[in-house]
Amino acid sequence: MGKAGEVSRSGQWQLLRGVGPLAADTLAEILDGGQAFRWNRIATAGADCSPPAVHATAREDFLWKGGWGEHVVELRLGPEGRVHWRTPCAQHDETRRALAAYFATDRDFSALADRLPWRTDAHLARCLAAFPGLRILRQPLGETLLGFLCSATKQIVQIKQMVALLARRHGAPLGADHRLPTWEELARVPERDLRACLLGFRARYIADTARFLAENPGWLAETEQAPYPEARDRLCTLPGVGAKIADCVLLFGAGRLEAFPVDTWILQALARRYGLDGWPPAQVAQFGRAHFGPLAGLAQQYLFAWERRFGRDTPAPRRD
Asked: What's the CA gap between 138 and 251, in Å, rounded?
C-alpha cells in the first residue's frame, strides 16, 4: 500500500508480541512471498527504495507497509530480529489486536514446524533451515479470495498491481491509502471497470463471484467454519475457483494447515526434489497431504519459498 518511499511519521514503534526473532529474508517471505498481495517495501532515509529482485536478499534498512480490512500498518525489524510495528491510523488498540490475529500469534509456528517430517526428509530439513520462523498469515477470507482470483497465470508482482488498482479505484479511502472493496461493493462495479484494473478474463470471475456473494450473505462465513473437505468443495463452486485457489484461500485466509496448494513452483519442487515428474496436480496434492501430514500447508510454504529462492541454482539429486 502507498507509494515507494512514503513513510508515515505518526505512531510509535512497538514490539509485535508472539512473533519470535526473524531474519530479514523470512519476514520478506511472509509478507511478499505469495500469501498476501498488499505489502510493499519502503526505504528508510538514505536507503535505496527501488524494488528488489525476486531472489534478492532482504535488507534490514527497509520498512514494510501494508494493510488488510480497515487497518494500515508499518513493520520493521528491530534489535535481534524482533518485529516492530506502528500505525498511522487512530484506532491503535484495535489495530494491535487485529495485527496479532493477522500474524496468528496464537499459534507456535516453530513448534508446528518441528512436527513436520524433517528428520526423515532431507530436502524439507534444508527448507526449514533456510527460512527459520516462517509462518502462515491469517488474512480475511474475503480478501484472500479476491487476491487469489486475480492470481491465475500471473506472477506476484502482477497480482499486486491488480489488487492495488482494485483498492484505489473501488475501495474506500483509508488514511492516505484505500482499503480493498468488499464483495458487496464489487457486485455494483461493471465488468468493464474491473477489466480496467488489468484483470483481463479474471474480471468475469470476480464479477460473477461478487454477485453470488452479494445475493448469499453469510456464505463465506459458513464456508470458513465448515470442515476442510466441505469448505474446499464449496469454494470450488465459485466462478474461476479450482483446487489450487481453494486451497490457497483456506490456507492463507482460514488457517487450514491441512490445505496443500499445488502451483507451478510446487509441481517443480516435488518433481525435482521428490521424483514426482509428470504427476498431475491432484496426485501431487494427495502426495503432499499424505507425506507431510496434517500440517502439509506449512510444509508447502517452506517448499515454495525455497524453490523460488534457491531452486534454479540447485540441481535435482541424482536417482541412479
From this structure: 8
- Phi, psi torsion values for 286, nearest 5 degrees: -65, -40
Q: Please tell me the number of Cα atoms within 13 Å of 297 on its side-chain side.
A: 24
Best CA proximity match to 295, nearest among 255, 268, 262, 267: 255
Does the CA dihedral 278-145-173-195 come out positive or negative?
positive
| Mean pLDDT, residues 15-43 taken together | 95
Listed by start position, the domains of the chain span 14-106, 141-254
What dotted CATH number matches 141-254?
1.10.340.30
Q: Which amino acid is at 258?
A: E
Instruction: Give the percent of the chain with pLDDT over 90.
Output: 81
3-state secondary structure 105-171: CCCCHHHHHHCCCCCCCHHHHHHHHHCCCCCCCCCCHHHHHHHHHCCCCCCHHHHHHHHHHHHHHHC
Grid coordinates of 135? 509462518
C-alpha cell at 263: 502451483
Band (52; pLDDT cuts 50, 70, 90): very low
Tally of CB atoms within 10 A around 58: 20
3-state DSSP helix/strand/coil percent for the chain, to nearest 5? 50, 10, 40
Q: Give CA separation, 217 vs 170, 183, 187, 224, in Å.
A: 20, 10, 12, 13
Cα–Cα distance between 10 and 228 in angstroms, integer?
A: 41
Q: Is-contact 235 241, C-beta < 8 A?
A: yes
Q: Would you tell me how many other CB atoms lie within 10 Å of the CB of residue 275?
A: 11
Average pLDDT value for the chain: 90
Q: Is the pTM of this model over 0.85?
A: yes
SS3 65: strand
Q: Residue holding cell 517495501?
A: 41
Strand ranges (DSSP E) for the chain?
14-15, 39-43, 62-68, 71-77, 83-86, 173-174, 177-178
